[in-house]
Amino acid sequence: MKLSLAHAPYIANKIGIDLANTPFVEVRRGIEPVAQTAREVIEADIKRERALDERVNEIMEEKEEEIEFMQADARQLFWMIKKKLAPEYGVILNREDRYSDISHKILDELWEEDLIDYSVNENQVRGVIFKAIESYMASFSEIEDIVLEKISHYKRKLIPGTEEYDLIFERLYEEELRRRGMM
Fold first, then answer.
1. Do 142 and 171 form a contact (C-beta atoms < 8 A)?
2. Domain boundaries along the sequence of the chain
3. Per-residue pLDDT tens digits for 23-63
4. Nearest to 107 by CA among 119, 123, 96, 95
5. Which of 17, 98, 156, 182 is surrounded by the fewest CB atoms within 10 Å?
6. Confidence check: pLDDT of 1 > 60
7. Distance (Å, whole) CA 111 – CA 98
8. If phi over 0 gives left and psi between -120 and 50 gives alpha, with beta otherwise, what is residue 8?
9. What distance in Å separates the CA atoms of residue 171 and residue 168, rounded to the nearest whole number?
10. How far is CA 117 from CA 47, 93, 121, 143, 177, in A?
């Protein structure tokens, strides 16, 4: 599952909650500033990947005729170009390495802004952040399925993409996150 801007606030809240519930971490100014800092780091990472994807799409469009002539697999070609350009954009494509890098950046920011203090090795704190990201991403599909199931049982049929549908989806999604202690 790819990180997306829509999930950044939820991941950031999970990080804030998990750090606050960790016995060896002291959250100095509350969960909100911690979550906001985490969100900013996550969003910056996602935006770098979006810029990379846009550049890859531009290249693919420029070479569209050649791709068709060679009967190349567009998805595979996209991935190959993305892989080649990723270092230039500061994007890490390996999921675990990326979450580790994000965790490191979040911890650095939290420490520099004096939002947290800890009494253990920084790797343990980074591990809490990493696990928060990973557990959210692992449960995302499951939560989304639960929300879609609830929406399907509404008496009035909601049309995906409408404002009403989006509001109800978001409300149910946040309820499920709260139920799981992720918000």
1. no
2. 8-138
3. 999 999 999 999 999 999 999 999 999 999 999 999 988 88
4. 123
5. 156
6. no
7. 20
8. alpha
9. 5
10. 29, 30, 11, 32, 26
Q: Tell me the pLDDT tens digit for each residue of 141-168.
A: 788 888 888 888 888 887 787 888 888 8
Sign of CA dihedral 174, 40, 108, 123: positive
Over 70: is that where the pLDDT of 101 sits? yes
Instruction: Round to whole Å and give the CA distance between 132 and 138.
Output: 10
Establish how many alpha carbons lie within 13 A of residue 2's alpha carbon, considering only the half-sphere containing its beta carbon.
9
Question: In the structure, what pLDDT confidence band is assigned to residue 180 with cuts at 50, 70 and 90?
Answer: confident
Which two three-digit tokens encode residue 95? Answer: 């999921």
What is the residue-wise DSSP string for 102-132? HHHHHHHHHHHTT-EEESS-HHHHHHHHHHH
Q: Name the residue among 9, 4, 7, 2 with its Cα closest to residue 37.
A: 9
Beta bridge partners of 26: 117
pLDDT of 2 > 80? The answer is no
Q: What is the mean pLDDT of the chain?
A: 89
How many alpha carbons fall within 13 Å on the CB side of residue 77?
A: 16
3-state secondary structure of 92: coil
